[in-house]
Amino acid sequence: MHVDERTARELRGLARVLVRSGYADHAAITAALTEAVSEDAPAMDPDALVPLLIGEAVMDLSEEAKGWPEATDPDRLDAVLDELQRLGLVVVRYTSDHHAARQVLEAAEQPRGLVFFTDTDVWHAVDFGMLELKLWHPDTANVAPGEPLLEDVLALLRQHGLPAAFDEGRIEVTLEWHRRVTL
To answer: Which intervals hold domain DUF6891 (predicted)?
Structure first.
């Protein structure tokens, strides 16, 4: 029994973005792929297929990472996010959705605002070189063009060599998603 080419490609693609995200641990990757195999390839044994999918994705990433610069765009992004935290913003990385990010914001004491991105934002960045950052005021309202909070965040991104533009309620950061991963 084997899986059709399209499903195999989709499962390899899912393994690729999960591994390359650099945020999901081995257990989370295994759980997500096991669920996908069970749904999309029910004739396959997830216990046999999932480790192969993860192994292939890790090997591909390890080989590619040999050619990366010492400091990568995600390293620079982390520096920006750390600085924003020091400035009083709540930072939520790789969250499931905006509801989860809002809960973290609401639990914070006197936040200056919220910067967050979701797991699917990272997966998009892995494949397309653009990460969407959401920037909210403490009351959960989106920032608007020209507001000092937005201008400060855009300036900080640019200072760290990350081109960014505000478009339709989000900050689009152009970057190569080269995050080093240890699973």
So the answer is: 6-180
Cα gap 146→143, rounded to integer Å: 9
pTM: 0.92
For residue 70, give both structure tokens. 């010492």
Strand partners, 130: 174
Average pLDDT over residues 131-156: 96
Residues 18 and 150: their CA atoms lie apart, in Å, by 30
**What does the pLDDT look like over 77-120, one tens digit per residue?**
999 999 999 999 999 999 999 999 999 999 999 999 999 999 99
d(CA 161, CA 175): 9
- Tokens 């669920």 belong to 35
CA-to-CA distance for 140 and 143, rounded, in angstroms? 9
